[in-house]
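Cast an eye over this sequence plus tokens and explain the fold to me:
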Amino acid sequence: MTKDSADTNVEQTGDITFAMQQKDYPTVIELVRDAVTADPVAALNDPVIREWMGVRYRNIFITEACANPAAVKNSQAPFPLNLVDPRSEREKVGKRMITNLPEHEVQLDLPPVEPGAFADTTLVFAPGLLTGLLPNLAFESVWPTLINRFRCKIMIADSHPMRSCEANVADLENVIERGIGVSPIDSSFITDEQNPTPPGDVILMGYSKGAPDILTLLAKRPDLAPRIKGVIGWAGAVGGSYLANGIYDQIKDIPKFDVIEDMTGNIGKLMLQLAPIIQVNNINRRLDEYDIKGAILGLTTDYRAGFLEENADDINDLGIPMFNFSGSTHLMEVPYYQRQGTLELLNYDKYNDMQLTQDQSMLPLATAPHLSMFHANHWDLSYDTFPWYTTLGSTKLKEPFAREAAMSAILLFMSEIGLMD
């Protein structure tokens, strides 16, 4: 950030603060967009703008969720309390879906978003560990709805479900530079033979292991930075997971760790500790690329800390704005086979999401705004309700978080601040 941009930022901050005091929210929105357009990293350095961004995103999300009948239904108090619940719809939805939502935000009357065109920037999604091996894909039912509503471009990386972050850089390069990935419409594979059109400018969004995959891409391919207008961490495993530490300790000395047959042996049993609902029948492609040991090592806290120590400054110097989203849950809201891990994480953070603590899910840019801590576990944040026959009898995989509203709000918010058009 130059001295001129810093001076401009101070002036804009004063104008934004004054407009907020006057409740002149259209002016606030315009000034924040101007600041982001002029210098997005300088804008995020401003605590006034960062605070506003969180307030604004959460407001958009509540509005979107209130327009979604399923989200409204899922926010009701249990029977018979729902019959006498005096709260407004916005309060019910906001308090159910967002952890520790400030009281003053519940009924905050902000103007609706006036989005621009979405055609110039593509949202590229990097899924997490075990993608394709669970009963559903992340946001599987959400992507088509967003594309139809906003006429936006969405691409999904064909990330390998079980190999290192370094190896998965190739999957991100494929989607960014060649348009090769997974279709957001029908989950089919987009191959080179189809001659796909690569995207132009992109916003990268990483869920779980997808976030460190993205950071590894930035460390290896800084030349891509001019095309990357933003990075979103969606419960991203940026700092690794204490649960991965325990699993890696059990597999690190097993000599045969990257052969697919091991999924039916001792290592397979350990992987089922991560997710007992793994669909083993789905392990049917890219078999020679499996590196189970490398995948888990890359999610250990020491490994991720070492990566950040070596690369965080260089990544931050790329000047890419970053945004954080996280989840939080309670012990009785997770599947019974995830309670042991959740209990372990409670020793570190009472607001863990079943797999990660809050600190572990924050991107390395210190000024990246934390736009929301949602009330949802790590899976509920991204996956539709799993079919009953895949849940091993758990009743805790059918309380759907308002994923469509959350993603719609992200697109609207990014458009409003000028990063999507």
Residues 210 and 393 are 28 Å apart (CA to CA).
